[in-house]
Amino acid sequence: MQRLVAASSLLLLMGAAPAGNPNARITSLEVKFFDPETASFGPDVLKGGLYLGWNTFLAEGNGGYGRGDALVLVNVARGGDHFEIAGPLTITALTKNKLLARRSFTRIDVSKGAAARALYLQDIGCAGKIEVRAKLGDQIEIGQLDMECGE
Fold first, then answer.
1. Could you please report the per-residue DSSP string of 40-84?
2. N or C: which end of the chain has fewer CB within 10 A?
3. Ramachandran angles phi, psi of 12, nearest 5°
4. Which structural domains are found in the chain, ordered by start?
5. pLDDT in tens, 61-118
6. DSSP label at 86?
7. What's the CA gap between 1 and 96, in Å, rounded?
8. Rounded CA gap, 90 and 115, in Å?
């Protein structure tokens, strides 16, 4: 019995343990703009994975919001009988190869079948083209925000 416990411990240390929830999947990638007047988030602006905006965060712009913050939401679902996604789930926002923000999540509880994780983006009002990306295992979901400003 002691040999079995020792062998199991060695396999865990060597990384031979089965991956948690290998069939997990990203079910959606959303971006919602923050409205400081109502202290709430608007609807998902990624239609077909793309948002084209002009002066979005100016009162007279596309969004009509007074600031340039947004919430990136990634929804994930479990596959099979697993109740945890080992991860990592990584959410990234980039502009012109410059990292704006990144978060990674491991051990995501999906005991209710699904879960969501978020990345908050600050002051993106006139940031230009922003790529938002969610990666879980081999699966990658990409959205594009075109946050242009001008007269």
1. EEEEE--BTTEEEEESTTSTTSSS--SS--EEEEEEEE--TT-SE
2. C
3. -65, -40
4. 19-148 (2.60.40)
5. 555 555 689 999 999 998 777 788 988 999 999 998 799 999 999 999 999 999 999 9
6. -
7. 57
8. 14
